[in-house]
Amino acid sequence: AETHAGKALLHGALYGLVDEFDGLGDHLELDGGRHTLELRADGYVTYIAEIMVEPGKTVTHRASLKSLKKK
After folding, report:
1. 7, containing H or E segment
2. Which are the contacts of 56, defined by CB distance < 8 A and separation ≥ 6?
3. DSSP state, 44?
4. What is the separation of C-alpha 71 from the centre of its chain, rounded to a whole number of angstroms?
5. 3-state secondary structure of 67
6. Which of 2, 21, 23, 44 fits as disulfide partner to 65, beta carbons 3.0 to 4.6 Å?
7. Is there a contact between 30 and 21 (Cβ–Cβ < 8 Å)?
């Protein structure tokens, strides 16, 4: 199995590893409102998004990190 060392941050604070939130049963539990989601991994461009969460609703957010290596 491939291991990903990506980190998930909310409002600049480490929330966990990306693989912990695969959406198949494991997901982030957030309060309603606007949140800053950041995904970081060595060798990749940091991904930052503002997401809006409605109380009691599920929001799906997918992202792909771009490699820093030039092809």
Report:
1. strand 7-10
2. 32
3. B
4. 25
5. strand
6. 44
7. no
For 19, residues 6+ apart whose C-beta sits below 8 A from its C-beta are 3, 4, 6
pLDDT (0 to 100) of residue 63: 87
Cα(29)–Cα(64) distance, rounded to whole angstroms? 21
pLDDT in tens, 31-44: 899 999 999 999 99
The residue type at 55? P
Task: Give the closest residue to 30 by CA, choosing from 11, 9, 55.
Answer: 55
Two tokens, residue 23: 């959406």
DSSP string, 14-43: EEEEGGG--SSS------SEEEEEEEE-TT
Beta bridge partners of 34: 52
Query: What are the tokens at 59?
Result: 């929001």
pLDDT at residue 1, rounded to an integer: 39
